[in-house]
């Protein structure tokens, strides 16, 4: 090949790559923007190839600065605001005021249909079967180390329906009843540790986020996987490190080749993901040896029993592969401890702020359970007020602040057409803090709003969705509520809680809503 041919070839390839880059960064998203606007979907103006990411970052910095200034000027618990939508997701709050409850914003060159209108959501979801919803492809690279390719959070279509069908029986009331004893045992151990620390003192300051996260990790390890707390803590630490690696630093989600800018964090997350896979695979292989020999009541055991009998509810279902088992274990270990740990953390903070509700719950616990060391599973339904508190905590501080979908076909909602392939971001926390849905006391802690009303007086049933909606509602909802009631019952009848002077209220969106600086509380024995 002559030098001239080489130069021409190099120029052609360079121009072709340049064209691909320009098309990906500008031409293609502009065409998509025009199509969405013609379909009646407005929103903030994007600046490609970053879309609205720069605006989101600047608004968040400004909101955090304002929140810090207010915290420094007044540190009393009475001054704490529960309006986390404005402080932690300020871009959504501001854009909602400007563009309404349905609009399009852009993460890089990826458009997201933002929805905080429960009626629009109802109409949209009513025309799509649960299994026919997709998951935004743009998030897959970030999510795979944490949930794998085949976790329930990652799959769709018939594969999702098959997994859901196989897993459902593990959370039956019969199996939950067996898990209750392990929950009591782990909580009692934590209470004993606190009591020992209080031997020579009348009070103690503890970071409740750390305490209950460790407890929830131990409980999920025992009840779902039959492993000891030491191995459970190893998995928990690795998952926590992965979460920090993936979500704490700036992610150029949706920006063409943006993953190259965060290659270090991505490689670290993948390494942690592989280490977690190896641990879970060894657990699975060990459990396979006792299948058929010992009765199985936890999630992993029941899934492994399914390898011998592929019938679920009388129907033939293809068994889960080893890869699918590993990914489902990752999904449930992370989701199973995260949801309950955060709900208990925020509950203890709120009860410390509102001691009246500590007293209300103690009276109810005494009436329903008494002083029994063991808690009968059937008693938990009698803890009505505790159920109100649980619902109110998940309204103010939802463990799942959003739901994400991707359209797999064009969807008509009134005069709006949602094109096939559109990413959808359902702002759960936005609806939970919507004054027009809940009234002027929307940002106040009032568990009594759920007295006799499953939706807490919300003006639209789909305005309250702490566990998702439709057929994709959280499969572990009853497990989470049972663990919550058991743990809270045991600790509230032994200790009282007040907010520590060192507490800094800084809820942070970090895949879920987490305390930015822990939750230090003063613990006193009763």
Automatic annotation (TrEMBL):
Cellular localisation: Membrane
Keyword Iron set for record: yes
Keywords linked to the UniProt accession = Heme, Iron, Membrane, Metal-binding, Monooxygenase, Oxidoreductase, Transmembrane, Transmembrane helix
Leader sequence residues: none
**Keyword Lipid metabolism assigned:** no
Gene Ontology terms, MF aspect: heme binding; iron ion binding; monooxygenase activity; oxidoreductase activity, acting on paired donors, with incorporation or reduction of molecular oxygen
Q: Which domain of life is it from?
A: Eukaryota
Q: InterPro entries, per this entry?
A: Cyt_P450, Cyt_P450_CS, Cyt_P450_E_grp-I, Cyt_P450_sf, Cytochrome_P450_Monooxygen
Mind naming one GO cellular-component term on file for this protein?
Answer: membrane
TM stretches of this protein: 6-27
The protein's required cofactor(s) are namely:
heme
Q: Where does heme bind?
A: 474
Q: Which family does it belong to?
A: Belongs to the cytochrome P450 family.
Name of the protein: Cytokinin hydroxylase
Species this chain originates from: Spinacia oleracea
> What lineage does the source organism belong to?
Eukaryota, Viridiplantae, Streptophyta, Embryophyta, Tracheophyta
